[in-house]
Design a protein that fits this description.
The chain is an alpha+beta fold. The chain has 3 domains: 39 residues, no CATH class; 305 residues, BirA Bifunctional Protein, domain 2, CATH 3.30.930.10; 78 residues, Anticodon-binding domain (Rossmann fold), CATH 3.40.50. Helices cover 37% and strands 21% of the residues. The strands form 4 sheets. A 9-stranded mixed sheet has the order 3-7-8-14-13-12-9-11-10. A 5-stranded mixed sheet has the order 16-15-17-18-19, sandwiched between helices. The longest helix has 20 residues.
């Protein structure tokens, strides 16, 4: 490197989206080249940021943290009731792994960085690809089907929206090794069960079938960009834009007629009859038959009131291969959950296993849930060295009660005022080893140890 005339300007090296470092020419020549890392106005810059979070992140505490914890508990309990076991993949993996079958937009949204060996790593942008990698490389020989659920944080460099930041929590399931209508119907049913368990009020599931459009397109072999433009035109239900797209792509005849009708194929079972009439080939008819079977199974489960058939639900055709669905709630500007069939993804990592799943955003769900979360303690207890007081605390906790022991030496009225400020149901402090004062929001009572033990035994969370 000796004798090279380095330019005097700084070099900006982009490492993934939004990440960069600044380099100057080597400090000296030799077998090892050292670079001086430079930041502008370092003391001032660091002082500005040390008390802040990066844009698009948020701290959760008090009621919000309690609500998120409760929603995650409810979702995990729901998934377990349907026979799904938890999977916990790593937070970051090789970029090439996480970019498998990802759309250009999702690739741009990934947080990427180098490890010390020079490999490009990325924070996971969703939970499905890590699950596919695990199954394809380690669990391909297990008895099928496999049922997994997950609750974990994912990361996307995108403009924050209501209930969705650059770090958010995804909860969902994956059903792997079954390509049947029964498998598809189960995943939709679990999504409905999850939404009901979160008590979000009225909601609607728009259920589509991307295999119908894929079959009509036949051998068109559209680029990913053209396919995305076609998807967006169908989604916007813009007849003029859609017709212009079809002309640009050279799609005409019966195929063009069927595609122009897709945005209007939305409703009840009559949609299936019209789709069969428009089908241009056997593959399209089989796709409609499969969707009809899934819809029938959901109706037999008593879930028809939540389902709207929507063949215009075609987003993600480069990823999904069969049914797709999104869940919508009144008052929320975007969908609350989404999923579908993605056969072929696991084959990138090993065995070619069919798969279907869905995910929802926990923070977005918090915007519409009607859960009443109480994070206040049931009892505030005076700190005391009496063994009987410690035994009372242990007894209450063994019954599932939340007991907060004061550690600042409060007594009497001061302890009662603190307990009421915390929202506690009861404040308890001892007068001696066998006599206690119990105060609630209305009055105070003096009780002996046996009487208090008997009353504690009747308290429930």
């Amino acid at each position: 490197m000796c004798g090279v005339n380095w330019p005097t300007r700084r070099i900006r090296l982009v490492l993934g989206t939004g990440l960069f470092c600044c380099l100057r020419p080597p400090a000296r020549c030799g077998s090892v080249i050292s670079f001086e890392r430079k930041a502008w106005n370092v003391p001032h810059y660091e002082n500005q940021l040390v008390r802040q979070l990066p844009y698009g992140l948020a701290d959760l505490f008090f009621e919000q943290a309690a609500a998120k914890t409760e929603l995650e508990r409810i979702l995990q309990a729901t998934f377990r009731q349907w026979g799904y076991g938890r999977i916990i993949p790593p937070t970051f993996q090789y970029y090439e792994t996480l970019a498998t079958q990802a759309s250009p937009q999702l690739k741009e949204e990934m947080y990427r960085f180098f490890d010390r060996e020079g490999h490009i790593l990325a924070l996971r942008p969703d939970m499905t690809v890590p699950t596919a990698r695990l199954v394809g490389t380690k669990l391909y020989d297990q008895t099928l089907p496999l049922r997994f659920y997950y609750v974990g944080n994912v990361f996307r460099y995108e403009e924050p929206q209501a209930g969705r930041r650059r770090e958010f929590t995804q909860a969902g399931i994956e059903l792997i090794g079954a390509a049947t209508p029964e498998a598809d119907a189960e995943v939709v049913a679990v999504a409905i069960a999850a939404l009901e368990a979160m008590d979000i009020g009225r909601f609607q599931i728009n259920l589509g079938q991307v295999a119908f459009l894929a079959a009509i397109l036949g051998d068109a072999r559209l680029s990913q960009g053209d396919l995305g433009r076609l998807e967006r035109a169908i989604e916007r239900k813009n007849d003029v834009e859609l017709q212009r797209m079809l002309e640009e792509l050279g799609i005409a005849g019966n195929a063009a007629c069927a595609i122009r009708a897709i945005p209007r194929l939305c409703g009840d079972q009559g949609v299936l009859r019209e789709a069969q009439r428009l089908a241009t080939n056997r593959a399209a008819r089989l796709a409609v038959e499969h969707l009809g079977r899934v819809y029938h199974l959901l109706c037999t489960k008593g879930l028809a009131e939540h389902i709207t058939l929507d063949l215009g639900e075609v987003r993600g055709m480069g990823y999904y291969t069969g049914i797709t669905f999104h869940g919508y709630v009144a008052g929320l500007g975007s969908y609350i959950c989404g999923g579908g069939r993605y056969d072929g993804l696991i084959a990138h990592f090993g065995a070619d296993l069919p798969a279907v799943g869905f995910a929802l955003g926990v923070e977005r769900s918090m915007l519409v849930t009607r859960l009443d979360v109480d994070f206040a303690p049931d009892i505030v207890m005076q700190a005391c060295e009496h063994q009987t007081c410690g035994a009372l605390v242990a007894m209450a906790r063994s019954r599932g009660l939340c007991v907060e022991v004061d550690v600042l030496g409060r007594r009497g009225k001061e302890l009662v005022a603190y307990a009421r400020g915390r929202g506690a149901r009861q404040a308890i402090f001892c007068r001696d080893a066998s006599t206690y004062t119990v105060a609630d929001s209305h009055a105070s009572r003096r009780m002996g140890l046996p009487e208090l033990q008997e009353e504690l035994a009747s308290w429930n969370r």
